[in-house]
Amino acid sequence: MDKINDLINKNIGDIYLKEPLSKHSSWRIGGPADVLIEPYNIEQIIEIIQYADLMKIPTAIIGNGTNLLFSDEGFRGIIVKLGNNFSKYTIKGNRVCAEAGIWTPKFAKILSDNGLSGLEHAIGIPGTLGGLIFMNGGSGGKCIGDIVKKIWVIDRNYNLISFSQKECDFSYRKSVFQDSGYIICKIELECEIGEKERIKSEMRDILNKRKNKFPLNYPNCGSVFLSNPVMNDTVAPPGKLIEEAGLKGYQIGGAQISEKHANFIVNLGNATAKDVISIAQYIRKIVYQRYGICLESEVKYLGELGSLRSLHEVGIIEKR
């Protein structure tokens, strides 16, 4: 506790003790974190991780928790949330710089208000810009990496370094930042000058399609299993495979395979991480038995003791 008290006395942002991670998860799942901190600037982020490393306190960096499943037991360490406190941006011509915590739909709207095109596809993606970069997220065959000019990250030596688009090594739902230990802080995008009303019209169409297609009335993380272009062309997208296997509506505890879109696992109100893991394992088992395909997940599971694994790699819930 002395370690935590020392941390509280530092000027490092907004600090919350025993904070329920369910409040920071789009699935609304997760036990309490010992400490959750929302820093305001890069200097505070560096101070937090330096202190945590020195004191050997487990640390995890999160955005909005969209592609994360938190342990039912919570997190025994420090969660650093890059969110509203870390969401400033500047626009100069068709170049835009933004901090990693800015909310992606809000950012896409800001760009459209300024007649800038390139992020329309992300208007309905409920996460932060940093998380979008980390996963090279997108929709409709487009990815955020397509318009990246430069990324600034904190490296393992607590230095702020930059990556060009090429150095980011973007591919489908992949980037160099995964499993790197780097903390994405700031992003520069190169957009195209466009006609405001056309851009806004395209975004309205995207939102309407999402509303009709996806189960937005229940907490969820979006698509659970990766839908790669090769599999889509040769077999079918994951949602179609899961649906054809007759799994729509299948339920374990409070978690259910959505009846609206089979690649969504929804929280009906009292789902646990264990429920979600169990249902994901069941989906993978049935799809493999039927099609010989091993589905992989874009969702990450953060264990109580700090391990971060893809959902499809998780077997038994972590125990002390």
Quick structural gist:
The protein has 320 residues and is an alpha+beta fold. It has helices spanning 2-8, 42-54, 104-113, 129-135, 196-213, 229-234, 238-244, 273-291; strands spanning 14-20, 32-38, 59-62, 68-70, 75-81, 89-92, 95-99, 116-117, 148-154, 160-164, 183-190, 192-193, 251-252, 255-257, 265-267, 300-302, 308-310.
Uncertain stretches: 316-320
Give the DSSP E fraction (strand runs of 2 or more residues).
15-25%
Helix-strand makeup class: alpha+beta
The helix tally amounts to 8
- How much helical structure, as a percent, in the residues? 25-40%
Radius of gyration: 20 Å
For the record, give the distance between the C-alpha atoms at the N and C termini, rounded to a whole number: 19 Å
Features:
single chain; 320 residues; alpha+beta; 5-stranded antiparallel sheet; 4-stranded mixed sheet; 8 helices; 23% strand
Please provide a written account of the structure.
The chain is 27% helix and 23% strand. Strands 6-7-11-9-10 form a 5-stranded antiparallel sheet, covered by helices on one side. It has a 4-stranded mixed sheet with strand order 1-2-5-3, with helices on one face. A 3-stranded mixed sheet has the order 4-16-17, with no helix packed on it. The chain starts with a helix and ends in a 10-residue tail after the last strand. 40% of the residues are buried. The protein is built from 8 helices and 17 strands. A hairpin with a 5-residue loop joins strand 16 and strand 17 (308-310). It is α+β, with helices and mostly antiparallel strands and 320 residues long.
